[in-house]
From TrEMBL:
PROSITE patterns membership: HTH_TETR_2
tRNA processing is among the record's keywords: no
Domain HTH tetR-type: 17-76
Record organism: Saccharopolyspora gloriosae
DNA-binding region boundaries: 39-58
PANTHER family attached to this UniProt entry: HTH-TYPE TRANSCRIPTIONAL REGULATOR BETI, HTH-TYPE TRANSCRIPTIONAL REGULATOR RUTR
SUPFAM superfamilies: Homeodomain-like, Tetracyclin repressor-like, C-terminal domain
A molecular function GO annotation: transcription cis-regulatory region binding
Protein name: AcrR family transcriptional regulator
């Protein structure tokens, strides 16, 4: 193969990658501006690509939403989780990791709604979330700052509860603050402290959450 042919192929791959990233960025903007019910035609128009180009990259709305969420989780959530796991103070790492993760998810509520409404399979996200936080949870239990009967799956329940309070508007109505969900997360954190109350009932089962 000639140098010119190799160069042409590299240029095509580069163009395809640029289009891919432009489509993802356009989809994020559409979600932020218009909510979860985005139209692929609008995404293509904003990305300045043809609809056929979009469909070559993504078979449909579900595939696009999955790709947008994966990029978001990789770039905005996972760094917070790994930073938490690396913190020398396990309690600080655990609370900062959960607080930071929830803050960015609350800001991107439309994306989360789109994931739910599109039926995107989130099973692969759970180990990516629980892996780093589970590590720091075990360290916090080992140093005696977190109650010993807390398990990894409880952390996903924390997220679900706080997002329910934030997404329904209940936290803001109760506190009068846009970030009122932080109050209820603080209450949950208090319940995770070593010596906080009686033993917990009903331990989560494998496959839950």
């Amino acid at each position: 193969m000639s140098d010119s042919e190799n160069g042409s192929k590299r240029a095509l791959r580069s163009d395809a990658q640029r289009n891919h990233l432009r489509i993802l960025a356009a989809a994020r903007t559409e979600l932020a501006e218009h909510g979860p019910a985005i139209r692929l035609e609008d995404v293509a128009r904003r990305a300045e690509v043809g609809l056929a180009t979009l469909y070559r990259r993504f078979a449909g709305r579900q595939e696009l939403v999955r790709a947008v969420f994966d990029q978001y989780f990789t770039e905005e959530v996972e760094p917070l989780l790994h930073e938490a796991a690396a913190d020398s103070d396990a309690w600080r790492g655990l609370t900062r990791g959960l607080t930071g993760s929830l803050a960015t998810v609350v800001r991107n509520e439309s994306l989360l709604l789109a994931v739910r409404e599109s039926g995107v399979d989130m099973a692969n996200v759970v180990p990516r979330f629980l892996g780093p936080l589970g590590e720091v949870l075990r360290r916090a239990q080992a140093d005696g700052t977190v109650r010993p009967d807390l398990v990894e799956r409880d952390l996903t329940a924390f997220v679900v509860m706080v997002l329910a309070a934030a997404g329904s508007g209940a936290a803001e109505r109760a506190t009068g603050a846009a970030e009122g969900w932080r109050r209820y997360l603080a209450l949950l954190f208090d319940g995770t402290r070593a010596g906080a109350g009686e033993d917990l009932p009903c331990a989560p089962v494998d496959g839950g959450c």
